[in-house]
Structures are given as C-alpha cells and as structure tokens.
Amino acid sequence: MTIRLDGLTLLDNKAGSNTKRVRMYLAEKGLEIPRVNVEFSKMEHRTPEFRKINPMAALPVLKLEDGTYLSESYAICRYLEELHPEPPLFGATPRERAIIEMWNRRIELDVASYVTSFVKHQQPFFAEVLTQVPEYVEACRKDALKKFDWLDADMAGRDYIAGDAFSVVDITAYARIGTGKHVGLFFTDDHPNLLRWWERIEQRPSALA
Fold first, then answer.
1. Which of these three, 83, 117, 148, is where a domain ends?
2. Are 111 and 184 contained in the same domain?
3. Cβ(71)–Cβ(58) below 8 Å
4. Residues near 24 by Cβ (< 8 Å), separated by ≥ 6?
5. Which of 22, 56, 153, 171 has the most C-beta neighbours closer than 10 Å?
C-alpha cells in the first residue's frame, strides 16, 4: 500500500546520489510525496531564489507543512522515519539503531568519500563547485578499492551491510557507489561479497526509483 503525503513537497532531480537516496527510501517505505523537479542543467539550484530555500544550493529539499525547508538527504529520511516507522529502516531497537548509525557513518565518511571525490574531481559538472585536482582522481580510485577490499571481507556471511536485514545503510551505499560505477569506479572480481550484495539490491523495486 502506498501512503501519499500531500502536505509535503520534495524538490528533486533524477541525477545525483542524494536525491537517489531519498527516492529509494520513499519507495521502500511505500511513501509518495508530490515532487517539483529542479533542473541542474539550467542551474535552477543556484538561483538566488533557490539559495533562500537551501543556501548550500543542493538537492533534495523537503518542504514541510509549516513551510520549513529540510535539506540533507539523510536528515530527510530520518524525519520521515519518525513519522512512518514501519517498516523500520533505521533499526527497531536501540542496539539496531546504533549499529545502523555506525555503519552509515562508515559508508558515508570512509568508503563512499573516496568514490565521491573520484567523481567530483573529474566530472565537468563539478568544476564550478570545487577546485578540481586531476592528480587526485587516481589516488581516490586506489583508496576506494582498498576500502572495497575491507568491506568485502567484513561482509562475508551476511546479506546486507549493517546485518541480516536491509536498512538505510544499503540505500546510502547503493546510491553513493552507483555514482562511481557510472564513471568507471566499481567492485572487481576480488569483491565477490559486494558483487552479490549489489545484485541483491538491484533486484529490489526501489533500485529503479
């Protein structure tokens, strides 16, 4: 069953890992939110009007019923989890929530950070966002592969990153690593556990969100 949340509005774009994370989360929860597409190609996210909504000039942004604008994809998912806790994607007990938080930080701040830098320092779209250092791209590739080595070994014997159940951590990793896959940074044959995990996630309907 799909629950439509007409009091909310999601400012969205099909490109990017952050918007992907929220769309996957909504699909997994069976939630539907009216959306407004913000065109990256037209730099609509960098207009003065949009910066009043989110000074970081980034998507997605969730407009709440009281007019508050909530940015940062993880924060948006956590907010929605508080309103609609079933099925639990942030954990159902204090222990589960702590483990999921631990793994989400590991993926975001460690593993995926190298993937993100690999993408940002080579793709023309990001040239106006940061000072690109072409020499850094290869270093990020090597470090990302090392992190994949570690994560693959750690995942031996379990189906999902944070344990035996699918969680927001798997959404985070799928969205983040997917950006690297599109430009040539992905798991190798030396990562059988991660390759199986990836196939498992791709079979979920939410992967198409």
1. 83
2. yes
3. yes
4. 171, 174, 175, 206, 207, 209
5. 171
The Cα 76–Cα 70 span in angstroms is 7
Q: What is the pLDDT along the chain (209 residues), one digit of tens a residue?
A: 799 999 999 999 998 899 999 999 999 999 999 999 999 888 889 899 999 999 999 999 999 999 999 999 999 999 999 999 999 999 999 999 999 999 999 999 999 999 999 999 998 888 877 899 989 999 999 999 999 999 999 999 999 999 999 999 999 999 999 999 999 999 999 999 999 999 999 999 999 99
Q: Is the peptide bond before 60 cis (omega within 30 degrees of 0)?
A: yes
pTM: 0.95
Residues 79 and 155 in one domain: no
